Amino acid sequence: xxxxxxxxxxxxxxxxxxxxxxxxxxxxxxxxxxxxxxxxxxxxxxxxxxxxxxxxxxxxxxxxxxxxxxxxxxxxxxxxxxxxxxxxxxxxxxxxxxxxxxxxxxxxxxxxxxxxxxxxxxxxxxxxxxxxxxxxxxxxxxxxxxxxxxxxxxxxxxxxxxxxxxxxxxxxxxxxxxxxxxxxxxxxxxxxxxxxxxxxxxxxxxxxxxxxxxxxxxxxxxxxxxxxxxxxxxxxxx
Length: 238
Known about the structure:
Elements: H1 8-84, H2 90-172, H3 176-189, E1 194-198, E2 201-202, H4 211-218, E3 223-224, E4 231-233
Parallel strand pairs: 1-4
Antiparallel strand pairs: 1-2, 3-4
Helix pairs in contact: 1-2
């Protein structure tokens, strides 16, 4: 036990301020992290779009190459058909007919491949449009988030300054010997350096607080939990 006595409401206030300061600092740190995550999301979407665009370019080049092949095949058929009229023999005539038939098969395959390629291109173009819309939406969210964080930052800083001043004032009111031990626990546990006694248990570690300690706390005698070293206080109304 540490003397002199300390007002339990002062300890409740001290714990409340610690939690509020911790919450504000967490909110202050959360803003830049959220912006960083939003920026990473935009970058990821842009990389996806770039990948789709690269695939589209290759597919279009492939389709264009097949179009050139098809045009060459059609020209070859016209040339072969022109030679039919000047065939010197039935054998030559039949050979030309066979070449024309084979080229028509090749052209038919190319035609199907070109159709399939353009169907894939259309699907990829739709994906690219979706990706562009997603990027636009993500950038808008990033813009709004950045503005919101920028707007909230001075308010949080103001609240922090006010609460830290209250904290300094509350800590200064602690008796010397109590203050020293409290500060040691504070360095180790931070905002959790204090804990309320609820149902005769420390709310910090959930270990039972002996009845005699509870009685001392109610009398205003500073007591630290024997399990976790938190400075104990009675909750409001007890």
